[in-house]
């Protein structure tokens, strides 16, 4: 996939008033990442000439996420609508790039393949604009695609401006478009803030292009989930569910078993090996890497954990930033954190907390124990109720138990 004639413009300056949040919309999270980061990642796979993001609300925080991803930042201040946001990016687009994919920072489920198809269709038909649309059972809130009798696109009408007849149209505007740049600027020059929000709407450019006899078409997304926008908390929850569903399907396809999969939450960067069983209510977070043939039993939460093949995590264990070697067993009700390391075959039982400690091969601590800053030798059996507690006069000493011989 490579689109050297295209630049991408991501519109992410908005506040997200409907979220009722002190955090800018682009920074809200779904499916384990910020919304805007999902969009950037989908665009990066297209290998466009440039990725430009228009930011405004909490610009510094949004830029801090975007800059390391190689995105060019343009600030829109004040924010006067989606059409205005594109106008602000005009200079950054320059005069040499032929096409732009313009998309919102709040529709994070869009796939690279769909964007590539949009670009391909746009070029193939030499259109002025190609809109990604979708048919939704509940179209309320979205702009609608109004078509002429011959089926061609006539205009986009915002939800607040729909006539009673138009309200039943269920083909919506995803706000994801391909534009031919030299056709775009004259249409944007005609935008006026004559709408409910007194903003310059990018959607109005479609009507102007059509009225001027330009070719405008719409590609109906095969998977309507891809265009879901995150305007409200309810939208965020729905989009999060869709991401989680995608991730689980991906893992099941490579041989991971799940019980009641809809109750399992897995972050996008997590990997799981084949023949591992994940039980209901489990969360696998961060950059966790779970090997093959493991069992992660119900209610356990693993965050940034490496688990080697054949390990067993019994119910309701909480493990973070730790390492479980092959054939280790943990739980039920265990807490491992801050670089706890269990070497091959080691076991930790119920109500045991392990912090920054190493348990040697086949070492055991099965009941009611706190192991902090300790090194427990191989084959050692740590008795019930043991505490290694080495905090003395502001200095942390390490505790060592030699191998059982
Ligand atoms: C927009 C579309 C609507 C479409 C819907 C799909 C317009 C006028 N309406 O509505 O037809 O169905 O998306 O989700 O375009 N933004 C800026 N600067 C601004 C205003 C907005 O960068 O001045 C950004 C926002 O941060 C957001 C995106 O543009 O990422 C879309 O804005 P939003 O307010 O969410 O528009 P919708 O009401 O969802
Ligand atoms: Mg929106």
Description:
There is one protein chain. The chain is an alpha/beta fold. The protein has two domains: 3-227, Alpha-Beta Complex (Spore Coat Polysaccharide Biosynthesis Protein SpsA, Chain A); 255-401, UDP N-Acetylglucosamine Acyltransferase, domain 1 (3 Solenoid), CATH 2.160.10. It is built from eight helices and 35 strands. Strands 12, 13, 15, 16, 18, 19, 21, 22, 24, 25, 27, 29, 31 and 32 form a 14-stranded parallel sheet that branches. An eight-stranded parallel sheet has the order 14-17-20-23-26-28-30-35, with no helix packed on it. Strands 5-4-1-6-10-7-11 form a seven-stranded mixed sheet, with helices on both faces. Helix 2 (59-66) links the parallel strand 4 (48-55) and strand 5 (72-75). Helix 6 (181-189) crosses helix 7 (203-211). The longest helix has 21 residues, at 233-253. The protein is elongated. The protein starts with a strand and ends with a strand. The mean pLDDT is 96. The structure holds uridine-diphosphate-N-acetylglucosamine and magnesium ion (MG).
């Amino acid at each position: 996939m490579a689109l050297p004639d295209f630049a991408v413009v991501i519109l992410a300056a908005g506040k997200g008033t409907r979220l009722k949040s002190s955090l800018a919309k682009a920074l809200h999270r779904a499916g384990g990442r910020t919304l805007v980061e999902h969009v950037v990642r989908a665009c990066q796979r297209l290998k466009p000439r440039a990725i430009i993001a228009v930011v405004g609300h909490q610009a510094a925080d949004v830029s801090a996420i975007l800059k390391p991803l190689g995105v060019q930042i343009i600030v829109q201040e004040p924010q006067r609508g989606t059409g205005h946001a594109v106008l602000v990016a005009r200079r950054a687009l320059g005069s040499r790039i032929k096409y732009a994919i313009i998309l919102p920072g709040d529709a994070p489920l869009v796939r690279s393949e769909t964007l590539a198809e949009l670009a391909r269709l746009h070029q193939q038909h030499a259109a002025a604009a190609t809109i990604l649309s979708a048919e939704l059972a509940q179209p309320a809130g979205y702009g609608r695609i109004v078509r002429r009798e011959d089926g061609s696109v006539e205009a986009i009408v915002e939800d607040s401006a729909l006539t009673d007849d138009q309200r039943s149209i269920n083909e919506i505007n995803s706000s994801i478009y391909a534009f031919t740049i030299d056709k775009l600027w004259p249409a944007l020059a005609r935008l006026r803030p004559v709408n409910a929000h007194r903003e310059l709407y990018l959607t109005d450019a479609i009507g102007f292009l059509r009225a001027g006899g330009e070719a405008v078409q719409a590609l109906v997304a095969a998977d309507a989930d891809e265009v879901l926008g995150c305007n409200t908390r309810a939208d965020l929850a729905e989009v999060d569910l869709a991401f989680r569903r995608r991730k689980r399907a991906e893992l099941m396809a490579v041989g991971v078993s799940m019980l009641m999969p809809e109750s399992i939450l897995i972050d996008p960067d997590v990997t799981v090996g084949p023949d591992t069983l994940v039980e209901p209510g489990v969360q696998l977070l961060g950059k966790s890497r779970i090997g093959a043939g493991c069992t992660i039993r119900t209610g356990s939460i693993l965050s940034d954990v490496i688990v080697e093949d054949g390990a067993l995590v019994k119910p309701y264990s909480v493990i973070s930033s730790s390492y479980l070697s092959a054939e280790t067993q943990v739980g039920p009700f265990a807490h491992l954190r801050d670089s706890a390391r269990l070497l091959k075959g080691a076991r930790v039982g119920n109500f045991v907390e392990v912090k920054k400690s190493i348990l040697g091969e086949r070492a055991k601590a099965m009941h009611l124990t706190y192991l902090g800053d300790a090194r427990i030798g191989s084959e050692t059996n740590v008795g019930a109720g043991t505490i290694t507690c080495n905090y003395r006069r502001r200095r942390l000493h390490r505790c060592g138990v030699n191998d059982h011989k």
